[in-house]
Amino acid sequence: MSRFLTIRATSLLSASLLLAVGATACSGDKDGTGLQTSSALAATVLPTSLTSQKLNWQPCPAPSTAQGGDGKAPGKLPDGTAWECTSLKAPLDYAKPDGDTIDLAMVRAKAKGGGKRIGSLVFNFGGPGGSGVATLPGYDAARSLRSRYDLVSFDPRGVGNSAGVTCLSDKETDEQRARNHNLAETAEENKKTAAACAKNSGKVLPHVDTESAARDMDLIRQVLGDAKLNYFGISYGTELGGVYAHLFPKNVGRTVLDAVVDPTENSTQQALSQAKGFQLALDNYLADCAKTPGTCPFQSPEDGRRRIADLLTKTGKQPMPTKSGRKLTQEEAVNGIVQPLYSKEMWPILSVSLSEAEQGHGDTLLAMADSLNGRDDNGHYSNMQAANTAISCADTKRRLTPQDVGARLPEFRKASPVFGELTAKGLLSCTGWPVTGKSDTPQVSAPGAAPIVVIGNTGDPATPVAGARKMADKLGKDVGVLLTVKGEGHGTYGVNQCATKAVNEHLLNGKVPSNGTVCS
C-alpha cells in the first residue's frame, strides 16, 4: 500500500511499510517506552574513539538504491570542487556509548569563496527518511553559502546508507500498491509487512528516534571540529533542529528552520492539519488554473473539485490502466495529486496528469505517485518510506486501531474531501508496533540558545504556517525568530527572494531578521 510522504508517516497511509519487532528494554527507561529518555541520557559522555575519529573523505560514488540514486555520481561544482563522501561511527544506543556502533553516511563540498570560513553548515532535508547524501549535491539554492561554509549533509540513522531500514521487496511493495484497501485491510497489510521489517531491521528499530539523530548531529559537530552547530533544517528537519536545540542549547550556531513542523500537535492532529493543508493547496491550484483557460482542464474551481471527485470514485471502483501494465488505484491517484502540490512550479504537471487521467490514461499520475513513494524507473524503491515509518513510530506512543480511525473518518473527510480518508488511514501506521515510542510531541524549548530563524509559508500544504508560529513560541523568548512568507509550496529558500535574502544575511553575516517579518 502507499501513502504520501510529508513530515510524518503517522499522518499518512503506510501499511506497506509498517515495522514491528520485539520490544527492547534499555537501561534508564524511565517512562516505560523501551527507549532511552532525555533525562537519563543527559550526562552521557561519548568515548574519544568516537569524538576524535578522523574522517576519510573520498570522491562520492553514485548514491545507492536505498538512497534513491539514479546510478550517477554527483558532478563537480561549477568551480571544479568535487563532492566528497565518508562515514562516521556513532553509538547504536546512546545509553551504551561504548557498545555497538553504526556508520552514518555523510557528504560535503568544501568552502570556496571570498569570505572568511565560519565552519560547516549541516543540512537535513526532511521526511523523515530523505537521504541528505543524495539530496545536497542537487540543492543548487545553497551554493552561495559555500563562500563561508563547508556544505555538509548526512543520512540520519535508519535512512539510506546509515543502517537503512529494510522491509518489503520491490515486488511485494508493487503488489500492495496495486490494490485499494479499507481500514481493516490496511491493518492486515501492516501485520504482513511487520514480519519482514522485524526480520531485516530488528536490531536498529528501537534506536532510530529523532532524539538519537539529534545526538548524532552533535557528534558530527564535534568530529567536524566546530564549536557550534550551524544548521539548516527543512520540513521534518525543523523538528530535528528543534530537538537538537532543546538538548544542546549552548551548542546552537546560526540556524534556519524552513517549512516548520508544529511541535505542539500529536500525530492525529498533525494528520488533520495536513489534510486541511493539502486541500487548501489543491483549492489554490484550482483557482489559479481557472485563470488560464487555454491550459487548464477545468472551467472553474467548482468544476475541478467535482471532476476530481468523479475521478477518485472511478479509480476506487476500478483501477485505471497504464502503458506499463501497472494499475492506478484510488490511493495512488491521490498520491499522484499530492506530489505536484509541494511546489507551485509543478502545478502545470498536475494539470496534464489530471487531464490524461480523465481520458483514461493514468501514466503521469502514477509516475507522480512513484516519485513520492521513492520508486525509480526500473521498479526499485529507496528506503525513504520504510525509514519514514520507522522513525515516526520510534517517536510516538500513539497506537490506533481501525475502530479508532473509523470513528474519526467523518472529521477527516470534512476537512478534505480529496485527502482526508488517505491521511486518516495513515493513523494506522504504528498500530501493533511492539517497540513503544516516545512521547507524541517533541521537546523543543531551548532557553539560552542563539536566535533561530523560523520560516512559515501561508500556502504550505505539508507543514501549515501555524506550525512556524508555534515552533518560534516553543523555542522560547529571544530564541525563535518568526519570518512569514505569503506564497505557495513547501519551503521558501531559493523560491522566495525576500526569504532567501533574509536567510543569507543570517547565515553569512550573522544578521537576524526582525521577529514577525513578513515576505510577500
Describe the structure.
This protein is of the alpha/beta class. The chain contains 17 helices and twelve strands. The protein has helices at 38-41, 48-51, 132-135, 170-177, 183-201, 210-224, 236-247, 267-289, 301-317, 330-341, 347-358, 363-373, 384-395, 402-415, 420-425, 466-475, 497-509, and strands at 58-59, 84-91, 101-109, 119-124, 149-154, 229-235, 252-260, 320-321, 327-328, 452-459, 480-488, 517-519. Strands 1-2-3-5-4-6-7-10-11-12 form a ten-stranded mixed beta sheet, with helices on both faces. A two-stranded antiparallel ribbon has the order 8-9. Helix 10 packs antiparallel against helix 11 (347-358). The chain is globular and about 60 Å long.
Task: Give me a quick take on this structure.
The chain has 520 residues and is an alpha/beta fold. It is built from 17 helices and twelve strands.
Entry keywords:
ten-stranded mixed β-sheet, about 40% helix, about 525 residues, 17 helices
Q: What is the overall shape?
A: globular
Number of strands: 12
**CA gyration radius, whole angstroms:** 22 Å
Extract low-pLDDT stretches: 1-37
Tell me the helix content: 25-40%
Layout: helices, strands, pairs:
Blueprint: H1 38-41, H2 48-51, E1 58-59, E2 84-91, E3 101-109, E4 119-124, H3 132-135, E5 149-154, H4 170-177, H5 183-201, H6 210-224, E6 229-235, H7 236-247, E7 252-260, H8 267-289, H9 301-317, E8 320-321, E9 327-328, H10 330-341, H11 347-358, H12 363-373, H13 384-395, H14 402-415, H15 420-425, E10 452-459, H16 466-475, E11 480-488, H17 497-509, E12 517-519
Parallel strand pairs: 4-5, 4-6, 6-7, 7-10, 10-11, 11-12
Antiparallel strand pairs: 1-2, 2-3, 3-5, 8-9
